Amino acid sequence: MKTFTEDMKTFTEVMKTFTEVMINWVDTKVILDNTPIDKEGLKLVPIEVKEEYLKEWNESSNNFKVLTYNGELLRNVLYHEGGIGQYDTKKPYLMLLRYEEAYYDKKILKISKSNRAKHLKGCWCILDNKGNEKYICKETINHPYLVSDSCIYTINSKYYNIETGYCYGESYHKFETSNYVFINNEYDDDITKRGVIKIHKLDGTFELIN
């Protein structure tokens, strides 16, 4: 069994390798706690972001993280945990805040009487438990929600398949069992889809039951 020192050395070597291909906001220093590094599966790894970068993009926070899978960096993207129970790698899907460089519209700057257009925009992102990004909500005013233990998410009362993007319908109420989600899709433009839809949580198959 490897010692903690050996694990630290291995992890440092991995970090050094992927730092070489990362963009300039990432410092080579990694914030680690005093426990052995568990590199198996999906992990959120805390990092330090260069102060110059934060200042340039008008960001006061410095508690961002990157995603690794089995110790390897997945992509050059900053993430942050948000919401209650949305980050659980033991479940098929999870949700994180995903940050990207953005610019405020001139109208917003005029209203706010600010000239700081640059900022880091946080968008909700749904990922699978291997770290693959399945859905990115570009509209920051909207908030998707995961239907527990399923391949389904809902946003603005509409229900979607995470893997395919298929929209099952719109419903203001739902009923769940351990295996199924039931939604009342009564206002669909396609009258043949109106009624109660029974959706299998695991594979997303569905049927109209009335």
Question: What's the structural blueprint in terms of helices and strands?
Answer:
Layout: H1 4-19, E1 26-30, E2 42-49, H2 51-56, E3 65-69, E4 72-73, E5 78-80, E6 93-103, H3 106-112, E7 118-128, E8 133-136, E9 145-146, E10 152-155, E11 158-161, E12 167-170, E13 174-176, E14 180-185, E15 195-200, E16 206-208
Can you walk through the features of this model?
With 210 residues, the chain is mainly beta. It has 2 domains: 1-146, no CATH class; 147-210, no CATH class. The protein has 3 helices and 16 strands. The strands form 4 sheets. The chain has a 4-stranded antiparallel β-sheet. A 4-stranded antiparallel β-sheet has the order 5-6-7-8, with no helix packed on it. It has a 4-stranded antiparallel β-sheet with strand order 9-10-11-12, with no helix packed on it. It is flat. Mean pLDDT is 81; it is low at 10-24 and 27-36.
Summed up, what is this model?
14% of the residues lie in helices and 39% in strands.
List keywords for this structure.
210 residues, mainly beta, 2 domains, 4-stranded antiparallel beta sheet, 3 helices, flat
Low-confidence stretches: 10-24, 27-36
* Structural class by SSE content: mainly beta
**Total DSSP helices:** 3
The residue-averaged pLDDT reads 81
Beta percentage is: 35-45%
Largest beta-sheet characterization: 4 strands, antiparallel
Order of helices and strands: HEEHEEEEHEEEEEEEEEE
Straight-line N-to-C gap:
59 Å
Can you count the beta strands?
A: 16
Question: What is the domain total for the residues?
Answer: 2
* Rg over CA atoms: 21 Å
Strand order of the largest sheet: 1-2-3-4
Spatial shape: flat
Helix content: 10-25%
